[in-house]
Amino acid sequence: MKEELLHYIWRYQQYDNRDLLTTAGEDLRIVNPGQYNFDAGPDFLEGRVQVGPTRWHGHIEIHLQSSDWLKHGHAQDSAYQNVILHVVLREDVPIRLADNSRIPCLELQNRIDPAMLKTYRKLYVQPARIPCESLLPQVPLLTKQWWLDRLCMERLEARTLRIAARLGQNRGDWEKTFYETLAGGFGLRVNREPFEQLAERTPLSILLRHRQQLFQVEALLFGQAGLLQAAFEDAYPNSLREEYQFLQSKYQLRPVAGCPWKFSRMRPAGFPTIRLAQFAMLLHQSDHLFSKALVAETVADISHMLDVQVSGYWATHYRFDQLGKASAKRLGEQAVQQIVINVLVPFLIHYGKVRSREGVIARARTLLEDIPPEQNKVIRDWTRLGLQPEHSGDSQALLQLHKEYCQKHRCTECGIGRYLLGTR
């Protein structure tokens, strides 16, 4: 057993609480089990218990064995001097505070449902990618759907937190923050971070000053990306480099260091050079991008906004000095959908919350539900087990479930896991 199971049992009071006694034989009543502490310090804060005739208000600590108190160094930590109850699987040694008073101790080893322990062991010895794979059919459909709805919002909220932090750094400038976040979206998962670094180091105000000249926009973006430092055979990249050197000196710009762009294991249409050329064309053709995204009603509206083709050089190249088959190289449908999911939807949700615009939040959720579910190995595993996503909101929830709960074995924090362990 891991200590986290005891945390779960105490948090949801899933033990036989009849005729409670401390290990010293005193009557015990749990008035309030306390608030689960996600930070350092005692496991549960502000609990209330009655030991004999005396009521106590303070913190509650959980261990498998009482001696873990000593192993973890709590005896020398002042943060634990207000612990009023020690909850353990087994007391192997009485624990005392600095004033030599004995901490009341509740032993749970004979108060836990054996069926719960059996289910817990199944979850933790399961060799499958999904720990509850063999138990999942026992979970009602409504429980699964409720949990998926929660997970979808959890995934979106994690993204809105990043947007909120960026907005704070930009002193509430929504347009600038949207530009930087959208740049990360053009990088998709593989090149998101270098795209965001590029946007942070290339002020939108400078790009807008030169947006009428696509050549200058490309010079700024490719130069800031650190992709114009080599010696080229083609005239175009050499011209871009000369233009960039002038603009870099004029605006005192610092390019992204180390050239962190990834090309391997990617289709040429997704190369960062092509994404940069598309992003340059978008900035050249459109201004006030956030304002336009804010009034977009459908995925088709956003697709129209992002429908750009690359400049003449990139129509016949995927990388500098490498001639290829001529094509317009527009953003594909899947790339647009990923930008909607990862950028537009969380951005609109955060904007709606900050500005109290419930209609914007509702529209963002509708956009998510209008996109088909993603298709990858994780989603195929869930589909095989009967969890068939209906739209991208469901598939985002399943990705969140797999990454943040299944892979980390957080079964006691998962709505499905809690159901299987007996929390209804």
List keywords for this structure.
single chain, 424 residues, alpha/beta, two-stranded antiparallel sheet, 18 helices, 8 strands
Beta content comes to: 5-15%
Helix content bin: 40-55%
Mean pLDDT: 94
* H and E string: HEEEEHEEHHHHHHHHHHHEEHHHHH
Instruction: Show unreliable segments.
Output: none
Q: In angstroms, what separates the terminal alpha carbons?
A: 22 Å
Instruction: Tell how many strands the DSSP assignment holds.
Output: 8
Count of DSSP H/I helices: 18
Largest sheet data: 6 strands, mixed
Q: Provide the structure class.
A: alpha/beta
Q: What do these coordinates show?
A:
The protein is of the alpha/beta class and 424 residues long. Among the domains are: 3-112, no CATH class; 174-345, no CATH class. It is 49% helix and 10% strand. It contains 18 helices and 8 strands. The protein has helices at residues 3-11, 68-71, 114-125, 141-169, 174-186, 192-201, 204-209, 214-224, 235-251, 272-285, 289-295, 299-305, 312-315, 333-354, 358-369, 377-384, 392-406, 415-421, and strands spanning 28-32, 35-36, 44-51, 54-65, 83-90, 105-107, 317-319, 322-323. The strands form 2 sheets. Strands 1, 2, 3, 4, 5 and 6 form a 6-stranded mixed β-sheet that branches. A two-stranded antiparallel ribbon has the order 7-8. It starts with a helix and ends with a helix.
